[in-house]
Amino acid sequence: MADREANSFCRICMGSCGMVLTLGEDNRLKAIRADREDPQTLGFACFKGLQAVDAHNSPNRILRPLKRMPDGSHVEIPLEQALDEIASKLSAVRKENGAEAIAGYKGGGAFFTASAAVMLNDFLRALGSPKTFSSATIDQSAKAVTAGRMGTWGPGRIPNDKCDIMLLAGTNPMVSVNPPFDTRNPVKRMKEARKRGMKLIVVDPRETETAQFADLFIQPLPGEDPTLFAGIIRAMLDNGWYDRPFCDAHVADLDLLREAVEPFTPELVSTRADVPAEQIIEAARLLGGSGLKGLAGSSTGPDMGPHSNLAEHLIESLNVLMGAFIREGEEIPNPGAILPRYPRHAQVTPAGRWWEQGPKSRIDGSGMLMDEMMTGVLSDEILMPGGGQVRALIVHGGNPASSVPDQRKIVKALRSLDLLVCIDPVMSVTAELADYILPPKMQYERPDLHFWLYEFMIYRDSAFARYTPAHADVPEQSELTDDWYVFWSLARRLGVELQVNGVPLNMEEQPTTDDILALIAGNCELEFSQLQQHSRGAVVNSLPQYAEPAELGWTGRFTLMPEDVRAELSEVVEDIRQKAEDGSNEFRLAVRRLRETFNSVGRDLPATRKRQPFNRAYLNPQDMNSRGISRADEVVIRSAHGEIMAVAEPDPTVRRRVVSIAHGFGGLPDSHNNRGYYQDGVSTNLLLADVRRETINAMPRMTGLPVHVERKAQRS
Ligand SMILES: Nc1nc2c(c(=O)[nH]1)N[C@H]1C(S)=C(S)[C@@H](COP(=O)(O)OP(=O)(O)OC[C@H]3O[C@@H](n4cnc5c(=O)[nH]c(N)nc54)[C@H](O)[C@@H]3O)O[C@H]1N2
Ligand SMILES: Nc1nc2c(c(=O)[nH]1)N[C@H]1C(S)=C(S)[C@@H](COP(=O)(O)OP(=O)(O)OC[C@H]3O[C@@H](n4cnc5c(=O)[nH]c(N)nc54)[C@H](O)[C@@H]3O)O[C@H]1N2
Ligand code: SF4
Ligand SMILES: [Mo]
After folding, report:
1. 202: which strand partners?
2. Ligand 2: which atom is nearest the Cα of residue 108?
3. Does residue 342 lie in a domain region?
4. Domain of 249?
5. Whole-prediction pTM value?
6. Residues with Cβ within 6 A of ligand 1?
7. Is the CB of 45 under 6 A from ligand 3?
8. Judgement on whether residues 27 and 80 belong to the same structural domain of the protein
9. What is the CATH number of the domain that holds 654?
10. Predicted confidence (pLDDT) per residue in 132-177, tens digit
11. For a surface tag, which of 40, 109, 606, 688 has the fewest beta carbons within 10 Å of its beta carbon?
């Protein structure tokens, strides 16, 4: 059999790039390229996605289930035996400590496996445990908090391609391929938007690849978003630069907002965030006073800093002030392909504060968001003795030992468990600690659907859906699992039933992955068998949907300054008062993504290692000069919590007093397996504490922290 080509799409990130695969005679992945004819991504693919051949054929890939021996080594065992043993341990934990002692954590690898994206939640719920944690709550869960405190607009925000102006804060979509900007070939979409005249404001401590397109580039100190955005809001309100009719009709408490932002004069904001005062006024004018329609969006920068929920709340308030929403009679761009359609009334659904109902964490009383508990308390949930203490953890496509702040603490917690199971294709730092590692099929070896959980964020202009069959065979001599099979077979062994999309699964006869995907796509207008025929995906429902008028007598309004938000803003005011002049020359840490890795994923691939052998500390060259630091020097970065060593790299795009360094690197701390910085890099989570968490989502502070940076003393 000669080589053959097949269409599929990448499932590493939200980009969902259309790909052309070459399968060899052995039907294994042999080559990959971006699909120029892909209707959505138009020939784009990034470095990470193009490493798929190496990833699938990697010598580092785990090919058979592993069990940890008392001496810490891992030995291969048959899958069914591993599942028997796991089931019996889970059963014992449940009997002894209750269902709540069983928890799960899921990460990117789980979210992007459509058939199993919510299986962990469903499995734990079936067992009677609310304890699903995920990477979402150490990411941008501030967005869910904001929706829950402010309220939401039924038909949604105006689409990107209708924006005359856009503000992007703390996001670099040209590299991260992440919302709020269009994820389908972002560079091309940005160039098109600029060509049709869209104005762009970028707020970032680094002059990013995205900032290079900006008309107005604001480069504040990291961690100052609440101050900066309070200042922009104040300038908008002061000058009447906002959509008054919209706000009169739909905002409950504009006066409270006005009052609360009063202290944030341009002068104060300028000093505190270290940006020119004129830029604050100019941003306010462009957003609200220029007659341009558009929106403000943010990502990890504001959502990981101090007072991240407040920062996000203020940024979203800009959208309300601009009235940046789809209005009555306008079309809903993607009303739902696999997610069900429902009527969209041009009205505000008031703040739901969902976390106030339902189970609460015994650690800090935080409730549930997005059907999950907060990862900020995961370490404590495991370490703190008492009723409900977590004793068993299933990690699905995640790497908490790498991704959770306070690395030493989470590693200590993971080590202390009675049972740790990892569903992961490689020996991640979390897998190193696991009692059982169950290696799954990799992306091109499994049938899949598009990232249906947030499909409207990817397929922005139509009800588009996409299916891919499994194109590549799994490696010879491997015993890999389908991710869902782990949950299905454990549920069966433990005598509980799983449901998919509300439909009970047959627990006697093993379903296929396609059976599960068909249930997930149960609401789709197009029959699943039809969807399977479209190798580049299809618009599955071309009936347009429009924003309907508000319901008669509807009274819901946005709340822009509820009491808890006001209290957080007062804390910021108090902070500023206490150190009125922040004249110290301390640095601040800034989160960032790298082109070549996806969090910890792909780090060990040969081409990646060549470009990013370890995570460099990017510093402004002037700061380096003034401290006698040269390129490739070792520097010590010290926070109030911890200290790491990294290699310095001059980068003029980084503003002064900032150290910009990526997470997702580093071996296990204090372990003999740790190969050291020059092999593995270092975890920035050694610098972060999991205390001083935000209220509601227990979000730790992950950017904008004060750190000290100095050249490492040379040993004589
Ligand atoms: N200090 C600091 N910490 C951070 C961040 C930060 O900016 N700074 N960012 C945070 C954010 S935004 C996030 S989202 C989290 C990421 O948190 P995680 O999702 O926990 O971390 P990843 O490193 O992305 O781990 C993904 C895991 O999935 C595995 N995997 C890859 N492909 C597959 C697959 O097909 N199937 C399965 N089952 N597994 C697969 C990978 O091998 C890897 O171990 O980190 C957070 N932590
Ligand atoms: N190549 C690549 N792509 C990825 C990932 C990856 O690891 N690599 N990770 C994926 C994941 S899990 C996520 S969540 C998304 C994240 O997507 P993005 O949020 O777009 O991630 P970044 O590219 O790091 O952009 C964050 C920006 O915030 C800036 N910043 C840092 N601190 C602050 C601050 O306090 N305030 C402000 N205003 N800005 C600040 C940084 O300089 C950086 O430019 O990316 C996804 N895509
Ligand atoms: S941007 Fe890169 S990693 Fe993301 S889907 Fe596209 S090719 Fe894959
Ligand atoms: Mo993320």
Report:
1. 168, 217
2. 12
3. no
4. 157-325
5. 0.98
6. 107-110, 113, 135, 138-139, 300, 396-400, 402-403, 423-426, 428, 440, 442-443, 483, 591, 599-601, 663-664, 684-685, 688, 702
7. yes
8. no
9. 2.40.40.20
10. 999 999 999 999 999 999 999 999 999 999 999 999 999 999 999 9
11. 606
